[in-house]
Design goal:
This is DUF2892 domain-containing protein. Keywords: Membrane, Transmembrane, Transmembrane helix. It comes from Halomonas alkalicola. With 63 residues, the protein is an all-alpha fold. Helix content is 54%, strand content 0%.
Length: 63
């Protein structure tokens, strides 16, 4: 698995995922909030399967 998530994308995924999970835990948005596990996980492991399918890479290239 080559990293394809980085920078602001990674931070946005972690924040958005944690926010959705928090809202689900408090009962504000119901069970649909658990979908936040996906962006949280992809942000933490720096890999998004959908990005690899479409050839997207937000990581800085190493020289």
């Amino acid at each position: 698995m080559k990293s394809n998530v980085g920078g602001a994308d990674k931070i946005a995924r972690i924040v958005f995922g944690a926010l959705l999970i928090g809202l689900a835990l408090t009962g504000v948005i119901g069970a649909w909030g658990w979908i936040g596990v996906l962006p949280l996980a992809t942000g933490l492991i720096n890999f998004c399967p959908a990005y690899s399918i479409f050839g997207i890479n937000t990581c800085k290239l190493k020289k």
